[in-house]
Write a structure and sequence with these properties.
The structure is a homodimer. Chain A contains ten helices and eight strands. Chain A is an alpha/beta fold. Chain A has an eight-stranded mixed β-sheet with strand order 3-2-1-4-5-6-7-8, with helices on one face. In chain A, strand 1, helix 1 and strand 2 form a beta-alpha-beta unit. The radius of gyration of chain A is 22 Å and the shape is elongated.
């Protein structure tokens, strides 16, 4: 049995509990969080503790914590023999360098508390302070995901920045589309099939080849009509993104 | 039997052929296109013609044409008795005002030639020059879609502008994410599950509530790291979208 202790009780931790408990070869030994209340949802499923001194012995200590408290929590941990790894996209592996064996166990996905995701499909980006420890992290990773990737801290930073475009910024555009609908008394439901298909399309087609629309065609009449139609607060962004599409597709304007 | 003639042979026309031919109550009487070659893929499935004078009699004439040729093609049509409707998101219903009975039959989706979509789920936005003709268009629409919506030309313009955010601009962000990966030798495959989940999430959650990330948290350290990490050409857009998220969520910065 691979013994795992989870530190944290947020969205990533919650999804990891489900993933680890679905694996026959993993024993989720314990969960730690300093706030007792946050551990309540896990009672009965995992042993929990709010005290570092009660931390048991395990093969892996996974810190599923917000970026800004990883070092603080790590500094309070005993100097364990198992591998200590955080799940952050943005933090360097060196945040955990006080341990003998350390690494990164970053699931590249956006987790929400009440949405189930198939963990098997989530790319795990792994890094460790030695080849041996990397192999161990891969061994654990394979128990829960079908996509195991060795990614350096430098590359992970890049991925994390790219993920902001693919997730945060994309979601913001959805929100703008919703706002535009609402401000005009139109149902956002009308746009949902389009949003789903836009995302689904990239399985078959590179986004560069999938690009369509007035910006790409340099259809100035439609662009002008849209700018008139849009709420004022979104006009500059429309112009900026239109210019970005045209630049990126080598339109000479 | 409802008799339909399609004018056009592009992506929208192709998907409409499939949709109409799946309905037991619709007879796709004929397809028109001025370019014979473009009709080749439909040979054997539908009667085709390249001459307006050969246009048969039908209940509906659906103009699945690019915006800039709708009026031109319409001007060459005989003054038919059936309802003439275009499928454009951006064109006013008045583009077809030379006919007795006219309207709009706009499927709100992004169509690609080689991707099947379930037409039943595509919102149809309908408009007509009379109540009676609107009812007729609804009657036809229900044969192929489960989402029938009466949308005025004004509202359709708004929806079309919102769709640019939900589709064109979103796809552009995917392309940027792909570029960032490629420029650093990373596989874009790593981001695909994230992209799919970001889109899937809005079924349950308003995009406003689904927003996460360094911009929303005003996590200046992560933002600074991303800006350093990004290819220079995408830094301004990163800043612009970060500011837009913060403005839109009422951060006082």
């Amino acid at each position: 049995m691979i013994k795992v202790i989870l530190l944290g009780a947020g969205n990533v931790a919650t999804h990891l509990v489900n993933a680890f408990q679905s694996s026959e070869n993993v024993q989720l030994t314990q969960m730690y969080n300093r706030d007792k209340e946050k551990l309540t949802p896990f009672k009965g499923r995992v042993k929990t503790t709010t005290h570092m001194k009660n931390l048991e012995v395990a093969d892996f200590y996974i810190l599923a914590l917000k970026d800004d408290i990883i070092e603080e929590v790590a500094s309070k941990m005993p100097k364990v023999d198992g591998i200590v790894a955080h799940t952050s996209g943005g933090k360097s592996i060196e945040a955990l360098s006080r341990f003998k064996a350390y690494g990164v166990f970053y699931p590249l996905q956006s987790f929400s508390k009440n949405r189930w995701v198939n963990f098997k499909e989530i790319p795990l980006c792994l890094e460790a302070n030695s080849k041996e420890n990397l192999e161990k992290l891969k061994f654990l990773g394979k128990e829960i995901s079908g996509s195991i990737n060795e990614v350096s801290s430098e590359d992970r930073k890049v991925l994390h920045a790219a993920a902001v475009f693919a997730n945060n910024f994309t979601n913001h555009l959805y929100q703008i589309a919703e706002d535009i609908c609402k401000q005009n008394g139109l149902s956002f439901e009308l746009l949902k099939p389009l949003i789903k298909e836009t995302a689904a399309k990239i399985s078959d087609l590179s986004p560069r080849d999938a690009q369509t629309g007035p910006a790409l065609r340099d259809d100035r009449q439609t662009i002008a009509t849209h700018l008139e139609t849009l709420p004022e607060e979104y006009r500059d962004l429309y112009k900026f993104l239109t210019a970005s599409i045209q630049k990126s597709h080598g339109k000479e304007l």
